[in-house]
Design a protein that fits this description.
The chain has about 240 residues and is of the alpha/beta class. The protein contains ten helices and ten strands.
Length: about 240
């Protein structure tokens, strides 16, 4: 059984077909890249999987359960976590409190009212911060972090719910080459507990961290499979790689 599956997903906006019967499979402990030219439907497919959009037709399954019409909070509880391209950290809170709030989202209202959660979650918060090299910045405002560090903070927050699948939309956009390399290093260990579906324009980054790849062009899947096979496909080179 696949962990995450999009089956024949289509999305139509008026006369525009953004997705046309797109299939995608993410397996357990797999990093899966999703690439394509601008306007190919990558982010639309990611949104249909996350619940930010609902497909016109087709189905989305998580661990065998149909979540096609589930609302985003339901998908989150089922094991999906999403980070879009634009960071949404809380800039006027400390780095530590951003992660703490993400962890507290799982707590009961009673626990929050009795202020039990901060002490109980401290070790988890520090572990997440250390994992993304932010533990020494814990007391600083999130606003003073570099762009790359804010991206890392939001990834840490997305992992706070211990998801089965993490969805990332262009996490390295705007990063320096050094930050992109570091991001790959920081993501690698999560494969033991969490699969990853990542939309990216940086093909070198994708090739370095992903096991499998799906290529979209004009809303249709051009190729999908192990990364070494897909990148050598003549259809992929014609539809995408030659235009990068």
């Amino acid at each position: 059984m696949h962990l995450l599956e999009a089956r024949q997903v289509s999305k139509v906006y008026g006369t525009l077909t953004a997705l046309d019967k797109a299939d995608l499979v993410v397996r357990h402990q797999e990093f899966h890249g999703l690439i394509g030219p601008n306007g190919s439907g990558k982010t639309t497919l990611l949104k249909c999987i996350a619940g930010a959009e609902f497909p016109t037709s087709g189905a989305v399954l998580l661990a065998g359960d149909d979540i096609t019409e589930a609302m985003p909070p339901e998908r989150s509880r089922a094991g999906l976590s999403l980070k879009f391209q634009i960071t949404s950290v809380l800039p006027q809170l400390s780095v530590y409190d951003n992660v703490l709030l993400a962890l507290q989202a799982q707590d009961s209202i009673l626990s929050l009212m009795l202020s039990r959660s901060r002490r109980a979650l401290h070790e988890k918060a520090m572990h997440l911060l250390a994992r993304f090299r932010l533990d020494d910045r814990r007391d600083e405002l999130a606003a003073v972090l570099s762009h790359g560090q804010q991206q890392w903070l939001e990834i840490a927050m997305a992992l706070a719910r211990e998801p089965k699948v993490l969805l990332l939309d262009e996490p390295t956009a705007g990063m320096s080459p050094q930050e992109r390399r570091a991001t790959g290093e920081l993501l690698a260990p999560i494969k033991q507990t969490c699969s990853l579906l990542i939309v990216e324009h940086d093909l070198d980054f994708i090739k370095d961290i992903c096991d499998s790849l799906t290529v979209l062009d004009q809303g249709q899947v051009v190729a999908s499979g192990p990364i070494h096979e897909v990148q050598n496909s003549s259809r992929v080179k014609e539809a995408y790689l030659s235009h990068v």
